[in-house]
Write a structure and sequence with these properties.
Helices cover 41% and strands 15% of the residues. It is of the alpha/beta class.
Length: 228
Amino acid sequence: MVQKARQEYQSSKAAVKEKGCGEIKKIFGKEWRESMELNGKNIGVAFTGSFCTYKKSFSELEKIVAAGAQVQTIFSDAAQKIDSRFGEADGFMKKAEEITGKKPFLSIKESEAIGPCAMFDLMVIMPCTGNTIAKLANGITDSPVLMAAKAHLRNERPLVLCMASNDALGMNMKNIGVLMNVKNIYFVPFSQDDPEKKPNSLVAHFEKLADTIKLALDGKQIQPVLAL
């Protein structure tokens, strides 16, 4: 699928010169038609344990790779070990390697090198759980993903959070507020996904990831961040 998308992307560049940006829209959809500046960018994509959003997360990962970015994935301890009704951990890690062509980072030691090597132009945590948000806001670095975020931020480059948390409007609301005021951290627009049954739950609008990345690379937070 990714190889096909890459071929379509390459052929689309020539088509755009002749027919305009409409050709890109046909292939990637509105949200990705202006994101071709990702070509050649080094992007880190970190997975944490909100498994119900993995289908959306992997769909966006495929689009980032197809847009020409060089992608390194990172898996949290939970993402590496927990099998759920949404799939097995080994299967998700294998899928990430198939899409990116690179083995995921699975240890704090691997992630620590992200900082001194300045590996990424931008990093995305997708999905970003409430647990990850809470630890990030309080400077806790006890997993490969949190170390990756810490190491990346030392280079003063954008970190994008694609949130999925059942307690975002509960105990975690203060932590979201903290991170919204931290330099170089950006949020994909989010909203309540089930106000009646899960009133404290917030989930990012994954389809807005491309626009969020584009603006974050320019040092801007996409607005509105509270989506409907």
